[in-house]
UniProtKB/TrEMBL annotation:
Family annotation (InterPro entries): DUF2867 (IPR021295), NAD(P)-bd_dom (IPR016040), NAD(P)-bd_dom_sf (IPR036291)
Domain NAD(P)-binding residues, every copy: 7-121
Pfam families per the UniProt record, alphabetical: DUF2867, NAD_binding_10
Name of this chain's protein: Uncharacterized conserved protein YbjT, contains NAD(P)-binding and DUF2867 domains
UniProt KW keywords: Membrane, Transmembrane, Transmembrane helix
Top-level division of the source organism's lineage: Bacteria
Transmembrane feature ranges: 449-470
């Protein structure tokens, strides 16, 4: 089959594409930015790529000869106040572009919406589902609750909480019940539902075999990790306080923390159906899903992460528009040093941040991360998805990767920390010299005061980092 995939660089779609390719389907992958095509599918002969922004569909051209399509676009991590209108508009534009094609089935991954008091995000998911319905094609909707897998928001947040807090005083929503589902099973449902006419124009809840509270999920997670944890729940934490608690303890943004708290207050129990028998799936239990997620993490084989979605950061447009350092109205700190071994230096650059640290005065980097978190920024807790690999769009502590090319010997980062201005950090090797350039474009007088206040630290922090990148 020839299949259209939206949200190609997203957490679900990136993994689903690999599974569909294993089944020998031909894929037409929609990306907003052609510079962000995932490396693992870029050179596959069964893949083609088209530039589409479903919020600006005027210039988009969808091939007419597609047999099916996946709608896998969500705005959970965006801080936009009008995300419901944006999601509805995006779904409507997708529908309008697909209707003239030969598409027979659209598959949509939504959230379980069986509770009468839905969160804003679950209401939006239901609105998207209703928007996607059409007489021109059949809509198949899979509704999932908590998804457990390496790199998923729920997995990473639970890991942050469990591994950092031996004793927890937690909000009352930890007693809310849900049915977690492994990412592997989600992908099997999505791939298995393709072309099955008995699923046309139907919505199906997909869920794991256990009903667990969030507290039980934390404790079972701790058991898998061999950790002893103690949890006390309090009825007094308001949603806002709960959001701050989640924000400061985990690597999530405050916007996502608030959205998660809003969703976690709602019980997510799936309605029974014959979907498991129709597709031939026996979903795995929660502990098995957690164990498999850690196997992927330990093998450095995490394909996608929620943190790498551009919507989780400050960029809302194409990263390729920002791959050159600005020249005007900026302060610049440029340092260079002869390279002894280019391969060694490139490997060190590509491994910077996360657990590897910044090679010089890591304590100061951590203090800067704590300060950023205190003022509502992302802090250092996002880390990085892979310890050795980087590509455009990846989150890297409180930076976003704008450009990464070992062939061109260049890595460009953009700061997503709270700043009175904008900041870039570039590493590139030119004619045997490593050039390390920090650029800051101030905003008003506070931006200028900020630059001069941190300037004294550059001498030893940036020099130390530069030396560590070239010395074996």
């Amino acid at each position: 089959m020839r299949i259209l995939i939206s949200g190609t660089t997203g957490y679900i779609a990136r993994r689903l594409a690999l599974q569909l390719l294993e089944d020998k389907h031909e894929l037409v992958c929609c990306v907003r930015d052609l510079s962000r095509i995932p490396d693992e599918i870029e050179d596959n002969p069964l893949c083609s790529f088209i530039k589409v922004d479903f919020l600006k569909p005027e210039s988009a051209e969808i091939p007419k000869d597609i047999d099916a399509a996946y709608y896998l676009i969500h705005s959970m991590s965006t801080g936009s106040e009008d995300f419901e209108d944006l999601e509805r508009q995006c779904a409507q534009n997708f529908k309008n572009l697909v209707k003239p094609t030969e598409c027979k089935q659209v598959i949509y991954l939504s959230g379980i919406v069986n509770d009468a008091s839905l969160s804003k995000h679950l209401k939006s998911r239901l609105q998207v589902e209703n928007t996607l319905k059409s007489v021109r094609y059949a809509l198949t909707t899979f509704r999932a609750g908590i998804i457990v897998g390496s790199g998923s928001a729920s997995f990473e947040i639970i890991r942050d909480i469990v591994e950092k807090l031996p004793f927890m005083i937690t909000p009352k929503w930890l007693n809310t019940k849900t049915q977690p589902l492994a990412i592997r099973d989600v992908l099997n449902f999505l791939a298995g539902g393709l072309g099955k006419e008995e699923l046309y124009n139907g919505a199906f809840d997909i869920y794991g075999p256990e009903i667990l509270t969030y507290k039980e999920m934390l404790l079972q997670f701790a058991e898998v990790r061999g950790l002893k944890r103690y949890i006390v729940t309090l009825p007094v934490l308001t949603p806002k306080l709960s959001s701050y608690w989640l924000y400061f303890v985990t690597s999530t943004s405050f916007q996502l923390a608030a959205a998660l708290v809003d969703s976690m207050k709602v019980e997510v129990i799936g309605k029974p159906s014959k979907i498991n028998e129709i597709i031939g799936i026996k979903p795995m239990d929660y502990k098995t899903a957690v164990d498999l997620a850690f196997q992927k993490t330990e093998q450095n084989a995490v394909i996608s992460s929620w943190k790498d979605a551009v919507s989780s950061g400050r960029f809302k447009d194409q990263l390729s528009k920002h791959i050159e350092l600005p020249q005007f109205g900026c302060f610049t700190d440029e340092r260079q040093k002869p390279v002894i071994d280019e391969n060694f230096t490139l490997d060190k650059i590509w491994a910077i941040g996360g657990k590897n640290g910044w090679y010089s005065f890591n304590g100061l980097w951590k203090i800067r991360g704590y300060m950023d978190k205190l003022f509502g920024g992302v802090g250092l807790r996002r880390g990085r998805t892979s310890n050795t690999y980087l590509e455009a769009g990846d989150a890297l502590d409180f930076w976003r990767v704008l450009y990464a090319s070992k062939e061109e010997k260049r890595l460009l980062l953009f700061a997503e920390m709270r700043l009175p201005g904008e900041a870039w950090l570039e590493f590139k090797i030119v004619k045997g010299q490593l050039h390390q350039t920090a650029v800051f474009r101030p905003k008003g007088i506070w931006g200028r005061l900020y630059w001069y206040s941190v300037l004294p630290f550059h001498a030893f922090v940036f020099n130390g980092m530069l030396n560590a990148l070239v010395k074996k």
